[in-house]
Design brief:
Layout (H helix, E strand, L loop, with lengths): L5 H10 L3 E4 L8 H11 L4 E4 L9 E3 L5 H7 L5 H12 L6 H16 L4 E2 L8 E3 L19 E2 L3 E5 L6 E4 L3 E5 L2 E3 L7 H7 L4 E8 L3 H6 L10 H9 L4 E4 L6 E3 L4 E15 L2 E2 L5 E2 L2 E13 L5 E2 L10 H19 L3 E5 L9 E6 L6 H9 L10 E6 L7 H11 L2 H4 E7 L12 E8 L20 H14 L1 H7 L5 H6 L3
Parallel strand pairs: 1-2, 3-18, 4-12, 20-21, 21-23
Antiparallel strand pairs: 2-3, 5-17, 6-9, 7-8, 7-11, 9-10, 10-17, 11-14, 12-13, 14-17, 15-16, 19-20, 22-23
Helix pairs in contact: 4-9
The protein binds flavin mononucleotide.
Length: 494
């Protein structure tokens, strides 16, 4: 079941023992961050702070902070199941036979039902207010931040040239009760809409939507695809939209809080520094100013937030959801890719591990260049390519193959290209070196001597040991000696 709004999501989290409600008074100035940092790193629950210093509104955080909760948000048993849903549609072939045609129609209907739907009114406009950000418990996250930041917004704009909607998640530093900065970085679609606009661009910010709609704001979709359509597809029901009160945009009817306003072309100020997902403070830089024209909300609105910082943090799971959901789409362009992993510790842009079905000389290098040319993956600093039988999510296995299969003189590429705006190690702004490591087996034409055979036990002996396993008494004896660990049990395939 997929939650239809933030409140039914909270009910679900409560029922599943995934939510703790904190009644003690807590300060959004740093204290919430410290509590959340400890909770996330321990794999702990979502937190609803009910008693925040300086605000009447409760604050929800860590709603996505484990794989289980992230999958629950999509109503799926795990993130691979979400990916499978997308793969089924992307890999549609002309149907053969009646049953396939019926199934195909079902899939097309799912797609048609994904389109956002305009409705007359919605809970997000139960209360209409003069803009006043002082009412909200906006977190001041880290000691070196200059101000509080809105950290989990869905920022809505339209391309003035064709009216296509964009939804992005861009942090917003509070300037005063009626304005914030808008931190849309140089590679982001919201910024493109702004740059294409003469004069003012209307901007709406939805806070506290259902979890899938909130996730969709962080999804790196191509510019011409509406993130609310992806949300509708993943939810299995359209995102319902209501027209804003003071600007020509629409917002999700189920949002807890909506900020309406505009950004003037060329009106910039100095945003940051901000304790960022890189684990460092991103430096102060010029960013545009968002001026509010209205603020609407549900009664007793809940304010959503997230902390980023030294990984792992809650955003790890938003990133993992994207990694899984986008795999089928990546395979449409680069079908030889079997799987890929963006390590959380690599802050997503720093490292991608990719497994491929290697078929020809230089194949791994072809895939590195494909990654460096693919949407937001183009910002990846290091790409490691391994053979299809390597589990990209098992970093021990990956390091083993990098060590065993790489001659650094032959198998490493140093290239260059665009880098994430937040990358402080690059010697140039948004631009720098790229590292490609080919850890696949090598062919003679790639300069290898004869490649040795991998060690593997014969199938007969494996079967024999499987059949006789209990006879050896290993498991029983280990149990007697204090039990056998779950990890060891899995390795032994018990
Ligand atoms: C918690 C969180 C905070 C983020 N903050 C920013 C940000 O401040 N600026 C930015 O450009 N991208 C930020 N991102 C990444 C964007 O949301 C992401 O690249 C998204 O695809 C942008 O949408 P767009 O492709 O429509 O521009 C953040 C992502 C998450 C999960």
């Amino acid at each position: 079941m997929v939650a239809s709004d933030l409140r039914s999501w909270l009910d679900l989290l409560r029922r599943e023992g995934e939510l703790v409600e904190v009644d003690a008074e807590v300060d959004p100035y740093l204290e919430v961050t410290e509590i959340v940092d400890r909770t996330v790193k321990a794999g702990g629950p979502a937190l609803l702070f009910r008693n925040l210093k300086g605000s009447e509104h409760p604050l929800l955080i860590n709603q996505f902070g484990t794989e289980r909760r992230m999958a629950m948000a999509f109503g799926a048993p795990n993130l691979d199941a979400v990916s499978q849903k997308l793969e089924d549609v992307l890999e549609m072939q002309p149907p053969q036979g009646l049953m396939e045609k019926v199934r195909g129609l079902g899939k097309l209907k799912k797609l048609a039902d994904s389109m956002p739907k305009r409705v007359g009114g919605g809970p997000c406009q139960e209360i209409v207010l003069e803009p006043n950000l002082d009412l909200l418990p906006i977190q001041h996250c880290w000691p070196g931040d200059p101000a509080p930041f809105i950290t989990l917004p869905a920022v809505i704009t339209k391309d003035p040239r064709n009216g296509t909607r964009n939804v992005g998640m861009y942090r917003m530093q509070k300037i005063d009760s009626r304005s914030t900065f808008m931190h849309w970085q140089i590679h982001k679609d919201g910024r493109m809409d702004w740059l294409a606009t003469e004069g003012r661009i209307p901007v709406a910010v939805a806070l506290g939507c259902d979890p899938v709609t909130t996730y969709s704001a962080s999804a790196p979709l191509p510019k011409h695809i509406d993130e609310f359509m992806l949300a509708g597809f993943l939810k299995g029901s359209p995102v319902e939209l209501v027209p804003c009160r003071t600007i020509d945009l629409e917002v999700p009817a189920n949002a807890e809080i909506v900020l309406e306003g505009y950004i003037e072309a060329g009106e910039l100020g100095t945003e940051g520094p901000f304790g960022d997902h890189t684990g460092y403070y991103s430096p102060a830089e010029p960013f545009p100013i968002f001026r509010l024209t209205a603020m609407t909300m549900r009664r007793n609105a809940i304010y959503p937030s997230i902390v980023v910082g030294i990984p792992p943090q809650e955003d790890a799971w938003l990133g993992k959801a994207t990694e899984r959901i986008f795999l089928p789409a990546i395979r449409m362009t680069v079908p030889e890719i079997v799987d890929f992993d963006l390590p959380v510790a690599g802050a997503f842009h720093n490292c991608a591990i990719v497994s491929i079905k290697k078929a020809f000389p230089g194949h791994a290098k072809k895939v590195m260049h494909a990654i460096w040319g693919l949407g937001m993956l183009s910002l990846t600093k290091t790409v490691v390519v391994v053979d299809e039988f390597v589990d990209v999510h098992d970093y021990n296995e990956v390091v083993f193959h990098v060590g065993a299969n790489v001659d650094p003189k032959r198998d490493v590429i140093i290239s260059e290209g665009p880098l994430d705006q937040l990358d402080h190690a690059a010697s140039m702004y948004c631009y720098g070196g790229k590292l490609g490591i080919d850890a696949t087996h090598k062919l003679t034409v790639e300069g290898a001597r004869e490649w040795p055979e991998r060690i593997a036990m014969s199938a007969e002996v494996r079967d024999l040991v499987d059949r006789r396993w209990s006879e050896y008494g290993i498991e029983a004896s280990a149990e007697e000696n204090g039990g056998i660990s779950r990890a060891l049990r899995q390795k032994l395939r018990l």
